[in-house]
Specification:
The chain is of the alpha/beta class. 40% of the residues lie in helices and 23% in strands. The strands form 4 sheets. Strands 12-11-13-14-10-15-18 form a 7-stranded mixed beta sheet, sandwiched between helices.
C-alpha cells in the first residue's frame, strides 16, 4: 500500500463503519469485497479517492479472498494505522536528529523495544507496548514501503524500502527494511518479529575535492594518493567491509568526485537497490523480487549497460558469480568499474571472489582474476568510534580498573607506554552522554602489481602481504586503527572489539 494517507483519511471518515471492513487500498487501487459492491456509497468513495489521486483504479475480490489478503489492512483499521504511521515517522525523524545509522524495532513478547545505532553502538531509544510494536512493524512494511505489500506475515522473512519523501526526514535518501521472524514464547503463537532499518543518508556531509572528502572520512594521505592513482586506471576497484562500515558512503564520494572531474563522460550504476542519490549518474535498479532469479537479473542488467555507451560503471555490490563475471567482462573491455564486496581484509577479496567463481565450475579462478586489467584496486575498511575530547579519560589514570594483560597488549602493539592512550568517559553534553563523537575509517588499500599477483596465484598469501607492506609501503587496517588509539582518539577496548583482532595481533604473529 503506497498512497497519501492524509487525503484518504478525510474520505474514510465519511464511510459507514459497517462498510470499512470490505474496503482496502493497495498498489494505488481501491480493493472491494464483492459482498458490498452493490452499496451506492462504494462508488462515491471510489470517485472521491480517484479525484484526489489517491487511487487510479479499483478491483473486486471474492469475500474469502478479500479477507485472506486484506484482513489487517482494511479501512476499518485506517485510523489506528494512521496514528501508528505518524509515530513511525517521528521515530525516523528522531533517529535522523541523533545521526543514527540504523533503527531496530523488536517484539520482545511482553513489550516492544526500539533501539538506534549511533556511532557504531546500539542504544535503547524507547520501550513500547507489545501489541503496539507488532502493529508498528506491520504498518511500516504495509503502508510506508514502496515495494512492500499488504500480505505482511510475522512468519516469513521480508525485505522492502521506504523511498517516499512523505515518510522520511528531509535529507534522507531512503531506508532499507529487513524483517526477521523470531521465537518469542510470550508473543501470539510464539512468533515475534524484528525490524531492522538501515538509514541511508550522508552523516559525514563531506564536500569539495576528493582529497578533502576522503580526509574527512579518515583516510591517510598515502591511502588517498593510492586512490587517486587507481581512479586513473581501468579494471575493477573493490571496496570491502562489513555491513554498516561505510563502504557505500566512501564509494559515493569517490564516484561523485569522478563525475564532477569528468562531466563529459557517461557514468552508470547498477544497484539492488540504489542507496544514495548520485548526481550525474544514471542509476539503474535491479527490479527482481524473486531471489532465485536475482543473480541472473543482476548480471543481465550489467550486460545491458554495456549497450548504453558507458564510460564508467558502479556496481552497488558484487554478490554472485554471474554479476562478478559480468563486471569482469565490463572491465576487460577497458572500462573502469567500482564496486563493493564482503571480505575480512583486502587480500581476502581475491580469495573469496575466487571461491564464488569456483562454485560455478570455473577452473583456476585466481589465474582468471589476478590481472591488473581485471582487478586493479583492493580496499578494506572498518569504522572506528572516536572518543569525545571533552570527557574521555587517560588510560593511565584508570588503569587499575582494567586487566593488566590489556595494558601489556597495548604497550606491545603501540611500542609505547599508555601516557597518551585514552578511554571512553562517562559522557557529557558535547557527545549526548555517549562518550563517542563520530567514527572514522581505518583502511588498507592495495594497488596490485605483477609481483603481488604472482604471489597470490602461487597461494603465498603471507608473502604477498609482506611484499605489499615492505615494498609498496602498505599499511593494514589494524595499523591504521592503532594510530587512532596511540593519538588518544580511540578507546583501545572498543577498537579491539570492533576489529575482532587482538591489538597486538600483527606483533605476536
Amino acid at each position: 500500500m503506497f498512497f497519501n494517507k492524509t487525503k484518504a483519511f478525510d474520505v474514510v471518515e465519511l464511510i459507514p463503519e459497517r462498510l470499512r471492513s470490505g474496503l482496502a487500498i493497495s498498489d494505488n487501487k481501491l480493493c472491494i469485497s464483492s459482498a458490498i459492491k452493490a452499496e451506492p456509497v462504494v462508488l462515491e468513495v471510489y470517485n472521491d479517492l480517484l479525484a484526489q489521486k489517491v487511487v487510479s483504479g479499483f478491483e473486486f475480490f471474492q469475500p474469502t479472498i478479500f479477507s485472506d489478503k486484506f484482513s489487517h489492512n482494511t479501512l476499518s483499521s485506517f485510523e489506528i494505522s494512521n496514528e501508528i504511521q505518524n509515530f513511525a515517522i517521528n521515530v525516523w525523524q528522531e533517529a535522523f536528529n541523533q545521526q543514527a545509522s540504523d533503527i531496530h524495532i523488536k517484539d520482545m513478547g511482553t513489550y516492544g523495544l526500539i533501539r538506534f545505532r549511533i556511532d557504531g553502538m546500539l542504544n535503547d531509544f524507547k520501550i513500547i507496548d507489545a501489541y503496539r510494536s507488532r502493529e508498528l512493524i506491520r504498518t511500516i512494511y504495509s503502508t510506508m514501503c514502496g515495494n512492500g505489500d499488504t500480505s505482511f506475515s510475522y512468519r516469513i522473512r521480508q525485505d522492502a524500502r521506504i523511498i517516499n519523501d512523505t515518510y522520511l526526514p528531509k535529507g534522507m535518501h531512503s531506508s532499507r527494511i529487513h524483517i526477521e521472524p523470531t521465537e518469542k514464547k510470550d508473543s501470539p503463537e510464539g512468533i515475534g518479529s524484528g525490524l531492522y532499518a538501515r538509514l541511508l543518508y550522508d552523516i559525514i556531509k563531506a564536500t569539495g575535492s576528493l582529497e578533502n572528502r576522503l580526509t574527512k572520512l579518515g583516510f591517510l594521505k598515502s591511502q588517498i594518493e593510492t586512490i587517486q592513482y587507481l581512479k586513473m586506471h581501468s579494471g575493477i576497484k573493490v571496496l570491502a567491509a562489513k555491513t554498516g562500515h561505510g563502504k557505500s558512503t566512501a564509494l559515493k564520494h569517490i564516484i561523485e568526485c569522478l563525475q564532477e572531474e569528468n562531466p563529459g563522460k557517461a557514468f552508470f550504476s547498477v544497484e539492488d537497490p540504489p542507496e544514495y542519490h548520485l548526481e550525474g549518474v544514471d542509476q539503474i535498479a535491479v527490479n527482481e523480487k524473486d531471489s532465485s532469479k536475482r543473480e541472473e537479473a543482476y548480471a543481465q542488467t550489467i550486460a545491458g549497460v554495456m549497450r548504453s555507451n558507458p564510460d564508467c560503471l558502479l556496481i552497488g555490490e558484487m554478490r554472485y558469480a554471474p554479476d562478478i563475471s559480468a563486471g569482469i567482462e565490463f572491465a576487460v573491455s577497458g572500462h573502469p568499474v567500482w564496486t563493493t564486496f564482503h571480505a575480512s581484509d583486502a587480500i581476502s577479496i581475491l580469495l573469496r571472489m575466487a571461491i564464488i567463481l569456483g562454485r560455478k565450475e570455473m577452473s583456476n579462478p585466481l589465474d582468471y582474476i589476478c590481472h591488473n586489467d581485471v582487478i586493479s584496486g583492493l580496499e578494506f575498511q572498518r569504522l572506528i568510534p572516536q572518543l569525545c575530547p571533552h570527557c574521555s579519560k587517560r588510560l593511565h589514570d584508570v588503569i587499575d580498573t582494567y586487566d593488566e594483560k590489556m595494558a601489556k597488549k597495548i604497550s606491545r602493539a603501540l611500542h609505547t607506554e599508555d601516557d597518551e592512550v585514552r578511554v571512553k568517559g562517562d559522557g557529557c553534553e558535547h557527545c549526548k552522554f555517549t562518550g563517542i563523537k563520530g567514527q572514522k575509517i581505518a583502511a588498507e588499500i592495495i594497488a596490485p602489481d605483477v609481483t603481488f599477483f604472482n604471489l597470490i596465484r602461487q597461494n603465498k598469501i603471507e608473502k604477498a602481504k609482506e611484499y605489499w607492506i615492505k615494498e609498496q609501503g602498505g599499511i593494514t587496517h589494524l595499523q591504521h586503527a592503532l594510530q587512532y588509539v596511540k593519538n588518544g582518539n580511540a578507546d583501545p577496548f572498543i577498537t579491539e572489539d570492533i576489529l575482532g583482532l587482538p591489538l597486538d595481533y600483527e606483533v605476536s604473529r
